[in-house]
Amino acid sequence: TNLPLAAGALPQSPLPLTAPNGDRQLFLAAIDHLTTPGTLPEHLYGGRTATDFSNLSTLTSTHFFLPKTKRRIVVVLSDAEGPSFDTAATVSTLKHAHIRLVFVRFGSSTDRIWLHPPGQSPVIDTKFEPDLSDLGEVRLLAGETGGAFYDQRGIGGAIDKVQQLAGRGPD
After folding, report:
1. pLDDT digits (tens, 9 = 90+) for 62-76
2. How do residues 109-130 score in pLDDT, each as one tens digit?
3. Between helices 135-144 and 87-96, what is the axis angle to 10°?
4. Residue 50: how many CA atoms within 13 Å on its side-chain side?
5. In a 3-state reduction of DSSP, which class is residue 68?
6. What backbone torsions phi and psi does residue 50 show, to the nearest 5 degrees?
7. Are 2 and 168 in contact (CB under 8 A)?
8. Are the C-beta atoms of residues 105 and 78 closer than 8 Å to each other?
């Protein structure tokens, strides 16, 4: 499928990293270089690294998609950790705009965070524990928009789902 791609980040709100112009090299470069922790300026995410999934609803009002775009697919790559959110309201907003989420969760219960203070050696944050208390809500969000939820072992299924949703043609 030859569809325009764009890359973005979701710290506090969707933040476009590239325009949807179909330039695969630009897309891959943005993913490689602009999504590493610490590369986004703190003012863009308030210093908090937890993802607020309710902010996906702002995709409807921030011109991420051209008005003529019929197949609106957003692939979310995340650890699925974030604060509780109003799933029903977020689903309703995205469905009204015909936005489908395909969610791929990366991570496990053994994930750890490394802290690297300036001028010091990196250390493991011993207080960090993965919080998957809202994993069910994230699964529901993806499914209710017409998309789907996968873990990192199901990446092939996620690709198939995106291809199925995209169909044929650029719109």
Report:
1. 777 878 888 888 888
2. 788 777 777 788 888 878 877 7
3. 20
4. 14
5. coil
6. -70, 140
7. no
8. yes
